[in-house]
């Protein structure tokens, strides 16, 4: 994606506005154009990054990453795994889960959290993200979405059994190494 056209359009609008103010305003606008270019580029990159984050949230476990090459942004789209698409028609036949309504005060904006990981786990996450060819943030978003989806499917599968009397069996959950 070429940002030059957007920066030039803003530069032109500044020049038009300054022309109405006379020679001093035009001179000032010319001096401000160079420093403003960096600020404009940064603001555009922030907007594109926010858009990529919102799309990733809606596309999870797929993702959209914003990358810079030679000061120009580009998008890298990673679709969800193929097996998820293959399973969707069967899942569509079942009653679709109703979306959870947001709690009071909760909005759909991207939020920032602080996650503390043991050093060995951080290294494993970095390695897994690199192996998947995505950023750590994207990898963590996918992992969280997959865990929540798996938990929701497990709860739906267990729902009919909860009303029945216990059968004496034991249920274990967790991770195994």
Write the layout of secondary structure elements.
Layout: H1 4-19, H2 23-59, E1 63-69, E2 72-78, H3 82-93, H4 119-132, H5 136-162
Antiparallel strand pairs: 1-2
Outline the structure in words.
There is one protein chain. By secondary structure, the chain is mainly alpha-helical. Helix content is 60%, strand content 8%. It has 5 helices and 2 strands; from the N terminus they run ααββααα. The chain has a two-stranded antiparallel ribbon. α1 runs antiparallel to α2 (23-59) and α4 packs across α5 (136-162). The longest helix is centred in the first third of the chain and has 37 residues, at 23-59. The two termini are 44 Å apart.
Question: Quick gist of this model?
Answer:
With 177 residues, this protein is mainly alpha-helical. The protein has helices at 4-19, 23-59, 82-93, 119-132, 136-162; strands at 63-69, 72-78.
Strand order across the biggest sheet?
Answer: 1-2
Question: Rg from C-alpha positions?
Answer: 25 Å
Number of helices: 5
State mean pLDDT (0 to 100 scale).
76
- Report the biggest beta sheet as strand number plus sense, adding barrel if it closes: 2 strands, antiparallel
Q: Helicity range of the residues?
A: 55-70%
Q: Which structural class fits the helix and strand makeup?
A: mainly alpha
Share of β-strand residues: 5-15%
Separation of termini? 44 Å
Q: List how many beta strands DSSP finds.
A: 2
Q: What form results from the Cα inertia axes?
A: elongated
Secondary-structure element pattern, one letter each: HHEEHHH
Residue stretches low in confidence (pLDDT < 50, at least 5 long) are 100-107, 161-166
């Amino acid at each position: 994606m070429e940002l030059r056209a957007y920066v030039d359009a803003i530069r032109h609008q500044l020049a038009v506005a300054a022309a109405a103010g006379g020679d001093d305003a035009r001179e000032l606008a010319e001096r401000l154009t160079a420093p403003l270019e960096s600020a404009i580029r940064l603001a555009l990159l922030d907007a594109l990054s926010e858009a990529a984050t919102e799309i990733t949230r809606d596309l999870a476990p797929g993702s959209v990453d914003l990358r810079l090459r030679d000061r120009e942004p580009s998008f890298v789209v990673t679709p969800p795994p193929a097996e998820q698409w293959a399973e969707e028609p069967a899942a569509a036949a079942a009653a679709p889960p109703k979306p959870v309504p947001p709690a009071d005060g909760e909005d759909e904006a991207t939020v920032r959290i602080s996650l503390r990981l043991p050093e060995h786990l951080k290294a494993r996450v970095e390695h897994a993200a690199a192996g998947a060819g995505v950023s750590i943030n994207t990898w963590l978003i996918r992992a969280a979405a997959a865990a929540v989806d798996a938990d929701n499917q497990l709860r739906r599968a267990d729902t009919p059994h909860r009303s029945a009397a216990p059968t004496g069996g034991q249920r274990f959950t967790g991770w195994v190494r």
